[in-house]
Specification:
Blueprint (H helix, E strand, L loop, with lengths): L5 E15 L7 E4 L4 E4 L3 H16 L6 E7 L5 E8 L6 H6 L1 E3 L9 E3 L3 E3 L3 E2 L5 E2 L2 E7 L21 H7 L9 E8 L1 E12 L5 E3 L9 H9 L3 E5 L2 E5 L2 H17 L7 E2 L6 E7 L2 H7 E6 L8 E6 L6 E4 L16 H15 L7
Helix pairs in contact: 1-5, 5-7
């Protein structure tokens, strides 16, 4: 029987003047205790970045997704279901989870909760991150002979060059620049947390009352060498050992080396990893990588001091860039390699075949 069924990881990253963006710029929330607005990256965005890195390390295609649309009686196109393949042969499905609930109820719904619980990436402390603003422009004024300007009146009619000239008379406005004011950026020290449920990492339950996979997929997995094992979740199918041992190092790489580089991010930042803490006790992570509030002198505002504590009960790994932001004497060039190996060893030593 396995004593420790979970691995907990906390990572600390530095972000410099970047944007964790989906639609309308930098996401932020208000911290009521310190009365500041702070930037963050959602857990969904972090998870997507980790899954993308996992596929990249393994050099495999992401799992296919079906996008359904419906045409209503007026001929308008409306959003329908988005259905996952629900196939554990795809690593991003096995580790990322899935849900398939087709419209109409003719097909049985299947859903799998991810064995990786991934937090949002939030400031190490509200006072150690900020949301600065800047005004930017889309400027093509250096080549007015190349680019075209179209001015329309209130009825949508295009004005002639002479009409535009009259309209702009007395104005210094340039029609070759688009001003985009108040663009927010994210800067500071950020942390993200991951919990790995080793009991479910490579196992898929066969129960058809609350199914994670269809009965047809059960038979397919068995024919592909997946082994029947008993767990606290009932009868499960376990991925073959040789496949697990190939995937485990990729998981370690993805959990530590991920970056937000998808179409959900703008303004590139290295987002360098400063420190990693790993433990089988979640409480030790918050102590290993933390901040300490320091009262201000007289009327000055309080400050926060970032701390890496190697005696808090977690295994900590400190990179060279960390010394630029946090006082430490144990930084090393191979810190991330050691952290990855720690994760690999913990995942390899878990007895997946004999969980009970």
């Amino acid at each position: 029987m396995n004593k420790n069924s979970f691995i907990y990881l906390r990572g600390c990253k530095h972000a410099a003047f970047t944007v964790f963006c989906v639609e309308e710029g930098q996401k932020s929330y208000y911290d009521p205790q310190f009365n500041v607005k702070v930037p963050y990256s959602s857990g969904q965005q972090v998870k997507r970045s980790i899954m993308g890195k996992l596929n990249e390390v393994l050099n495999v295609e992401p799992s296919p997704t079906e996008f359904y649309f419906d045409v209503d009686k007026k001929g308008a196109l409306k959003e329908g279901e988005v259905l996952s393949s629900c196939d554990p042969h795809y690593v991003d499905q096995l580790l990322g989870g899935w849900m398939r609930t087709p419209k109409g109820g003719k097909e049985k719904a299947v859903k799998r909760r991810s064995p990786l619980s991934i937090s949002a990436m939030t400031p190490l402390h509200p006072l150690l991150a900020s949301v600065p603003k800047e005004n930017i422009s889309f400027d093509r004024s250096d080549r007015p002979n190349v680019h075209k300007v179209v001015v329309r009146d209130a009825n949508g009619n295009v004005l002639t060059d002479e009409q535009v000239s009259i309209f702009l008379n007395g104005s210094d406005r340039s029609l070759y620049r688009k001003w985009i004011p108040d663009n927010t950026r994210a800067t500071g020290l950020f942390v993200y947390d991951v919990a790995i449920d080793l009991r479910r990492l490579f196992c898929v339950p066969t129960n058809q009352l609350e199914p994670e996979i269809t009965s047809d997929m059960v038979e397919t997995l068995k024919s592909d060498g997946w082994k029947v094992v008993n767990t606290v979740f009932g009868e499960c199918l376990l991925m073959p050992k040789e496949q697990r041992e190939k995937i485990i190092p990729a998981i370690a790489d993805a959990l530590i080396d991920w970056h937000i580089t998808s179409n959900q991010a703008r303004t590139f930042s290295l987002m360098e990893t400063l420190s990693i803490a790993i433990s089988d006790n979640a409480n030790t992570l918050a102590a290993a990588i933390r901040a300490k509030l320091i009262d201000g002198d007289n009327d000055s505002k309080p400050k926060a001091k970032p701390i890496i504590d190697e005696h808090a009960g977690a295994a900590t790994y400190v990179t060279l860039p960390c010394a630029s932001y946090i006082v430490t004497e144990t930084e090393s060039a191979d810190a991330l390699d050691k952290a990855k190996q720690d994760l690999v060893n913990r995942m390899l030593t878990f007895d997946y075949e004999n969980q009970l």
